[in-house]
Design a protein that fits this description.
two-stranded parallel sheet, about 325 residues, 10 strands, alpha/beta
Length: about 325
């Protein structure tokens, strides 16, 4: 048997870009390397079911903490993305065919991990007619069938130029619909060139129009060169779209070929963003240097439900 090694670069579109400097991380960013038994067990379960996780593919700094608690964010539809965002470490290129067994494999992994709340995300699949919407629905359905008590949060692509796709996903009734704006509109051409800020904003607004009972959520990174005033305007835009939950975290540069970190936002600045966002009416805000979309997602979902009940006076 001959084994062929894949020698293609992980990010071929970035190969000829000039290197950007990587700044030394401040003390408040540092995390310990994962070594726990829980981490190893989570990794074994993920591997046994042939699954990809955004925790690994995106190089999340919280993987040690989350996997120790058996909290893994499943990344469906393969490990190769059709977009080429300047901040992202997920492999780019032409993806393979969808795995028809993936919905059942994800559901089995959720059961074995004993997850009360699971986050399902995906690569962008611009190559598919529906952007992968039906596959998202099938994964949600498989989890509901296998572990009915598990609450489901999805972090979706933007389904740009995929009419009807959003309706398919919302009809599957996840508990939380998350779509990240990622950054302020003025940085889109540089940081998220394949996306459109106002399309993403409208996507979130449309979710609430289709099903007002769903929680909506969005996240951004800071430290990419955005101005404070731009972040505050983005908060207003999200509230105009009736988004419930905002996450804000520090951008960390994966390689020298990715967008440069322009600044490390201090913990005090994050607290200020959190206060401002809360004052603007979000049900929940998570803002800290290590905040990521699915970080503490289970605990945050419980807080989100409690906040809605309090707002309704129950």
């Amino acid at each position: 048997m001959v084994t062929t090694l894949d020698t293609r670069p992980r990010h071929p579109e970035k190969a000829n870009r000039p290197d950007t400097p990587i700044q030394r991380k401040p003390d408040w960013i540092r995390v310990k390397a994962p070594t726990s038994a829980g981490y190893a067990e989570t990794k074994a379960i993920v591997r046994a079911h042939g699954l990809a996780t955004v925790c690994e593919e995106a190089g999340c700094p919280n993987i040690g903490e989350c996997w120790t608690k058996k909290h893994a964010t499943m990344m469906i539809m393969g490990d190769t993305c059709t977009r080429a965002c300047a901040f992202c470490n997920v492999k780019t290129g032409l993806p393979g065919a969808l795995d028809p067994a993936e919905p059942v494999n994800v559901a089995e992994a959720v059961a074995k991990l004993g997850l009360e709340h699971v986050v399902i995300t995906s690569v962008d699949r611009d190559d598919l007619p529906d952007g992968g919407a039906q596959h998202f629905a099938q994964v949600i359905g498989a989890i509901r069938a296998r572990t009915p008590a598990t609450t489901i949060e999805i972090l979706t692509p933007d389904f740009l130029r995929k009419p009807g796709a959003l309706e398919v996903v919302v009809a599957a009734r996840p508990d939380v619909f998350n779509h990240n704006l990622e950054t302020v509109p003025g940085l889109y051409l540089k940081i998220r060139p394949g996306a459109r800020y106002f399309h993403s904003l409208r996507l979130l607004q449309r979710v609430k129009e289709l099903d007002p009972t769903l929680f909506t959520k969005s996240g951004i990174m800071v430290g990419l060169g955005e101005a404070r005033e731009e972040v505050l305007q983005l908060m207003d835009d999200l509230r105009s779209a009736d988004v419930d939950f905002l996450t804000i975290g520090q951008y960390l540069q994966p390689t020298r070929k990715h967008a440069e970190v322009k600044s490390f936002v201090t913990p005090d600045e994050f607290k200020s963003y959190e206060r401002m966002a809360s004052a603007k009416g979000f049900l929940l805000v998570a803002a800290s240097p290590l905040t990521r979309s699915s970080y503490h997602a289970g605990e945050d979902f419980a807080k989100l439900r409690a906040a809605r009940l309090q707002a309704l006076g129950r």
